[in-house]
Amino acid sequence: MEHIDWHSIRQRFEQWWQHKTMERPLLSVTVAAGEKPDLPSDMQKRWLDLDTVLQRERQRRSATAYYGEAYPDYWPNLGPGSFGTFLGAQPHFLPDTVWYDPCCQKLQELQPHLDPDNPWWQWSLAATERAVAECDGSYLISTPDLVENLDTVAALAGTETVLFGLMEAGDELQRIQEQLLPLWEQAFQAHYDRNKDAAGWSSFAAFGIWGPGKTAKLQCDLSAMISKPMFDTFVLPYLQRQCHWLDHSIYHLDGPQAVHHLPSLLTLDKLHCIQWTPGAGNPDGGDPQWDHIYRTTLDAGKNIHAHMELEAVRPFIKRFGTTGVFVQTTAATTEEAEQLIKDLENAG
Question: What is the model's pTM?
Answer without folding.
Answer: 0.96
